[in-house]
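sanity check this chain:
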Amino acid sequence: MRLQHILIPAALVSLVAASAWSEETDRYRLEKSANGYVRMDTQTGAMSICEERSGQLVCKMAADERAAFQDEVDRLQASMKAMDERVTKLENSLSARLESKLPSEEDFDKTMNYMERMLRGFMGIVKEMDKDNGDGAKLNSQKT
């Protein structure tokens, strides 16, 4: 019984591994050409020109693919440059807007003077109430 629990999963794992290995080996197709070989990726359709050098196969992208690749690189670089310029513009406009909304030093001083006058007046009222109530002795005695 235990042997079945080991053999069945092992068989399934080996089948999956063999299938994956088969897919990977079948992914590329190599065809002989006049100058060497042409390698095609059967999943993506990408083609490469390959030559044998020092017993190794050296592959380069086909000319059409290289041009398309370079066009994509150029497009992405232009897009990045445009994004950088836009971010810089947005950052500059945001900081300018924030600076324009901040009060001037004069406005700040004026506001602080108003607050100081209001608090001094309020504290004066509180002191007068304390004097009128006899420093709170009457308030404490009424609570009992």
Remarks:
- The beta strands are 28-32, 37-41, 47-53, 56-61.
